[in-house]
Backbone:
């Protein structure tokens, strides 16, 4: 009796585990479809022109299902842009390793992020507003804040190549550097500037700080 009971329990646990695994895979699949749909629509249109219904339709999910992953257009933008930010950050890290000069390495790190933000100016600026001033406490905003902190940490690592600089000074300069980047990207005065023009401004301002 005991052996039969144990065998039945193992079978039930295995079945439950497989079912849970399928549910998790389905959730991940839907999330990836929503991300892809949001990225595609936001690449073509500004946040004011993109509706949650359009994202749901393109992702082939119900509007109610979409709501489980992102409750507002702002959260959808965060979801889409965070994925792009990760890719840009990784590209920047690789480029920075190839540069021996600190300033050039930092610009190489930041360049893909600036280009990512400027794929669509309205959305790039809206993304920064959602991150910095948004009231949402959802996981997508938390992830965006972690990504920005990761960029600051990467800048600090580049600065720490100079063994004469202390850790605290490197930390403060990294904070100033990333603040310069985000200020240039969000400034109303820079709306009409290209990514390259913004990068030039960032490099010029950082050079002054480092001098």
Residues:
């Amino acid at each position: 009796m005991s052996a039969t009971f144990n065998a039945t329990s193992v079978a039930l646990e295995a079945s439950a585990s497989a079912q849970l695994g399928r549910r998790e895979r389905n959730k991940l699949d839907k999330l990836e479809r929503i991300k892809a749909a949001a990225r595609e629509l936001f690449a073509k249109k500004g946040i004011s022109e993109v509706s949650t219904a359009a994202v749901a339709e393109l992702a082939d999910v119900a509007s109610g299902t979409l709501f489980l992953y992102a409750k507002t257009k702002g959260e959808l933008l965060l979801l889409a842009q965070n994925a792009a930010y990760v890719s840009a950050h990784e590209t920047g890290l690789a480029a920075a390793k190839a540069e021996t000069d600190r300033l050039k390495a930092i610009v190489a790190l930041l360049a893909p992020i600036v280009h990512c933000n400027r794929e669509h100016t309205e959305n790039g600026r809206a993304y920064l507003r959602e991150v910095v001033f948004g009231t949402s406490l959802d996981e997508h905003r938390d992830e965006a804040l972690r990504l920005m902190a990761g960029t600051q940490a990467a800048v600090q690592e580049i600065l720490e190549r100079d063994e004469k600089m202390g850790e605290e000074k490197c930390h403060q300069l990294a904070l100033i550097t990333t603040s310069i980047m985000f200020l240039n990207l969000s400034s109303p005065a820079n709306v009409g500037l290209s990514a390259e023009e913004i990068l030039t401004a960032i490099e010029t301002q950082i050079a002054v700080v480092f001098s």
About this structure: The radius of gyration is 22 Å. Residues 2-44 form the longest helix (43 residues). DSSP finds nine helices and no strands in the chain. The chain has a mean pLDDT of 87.
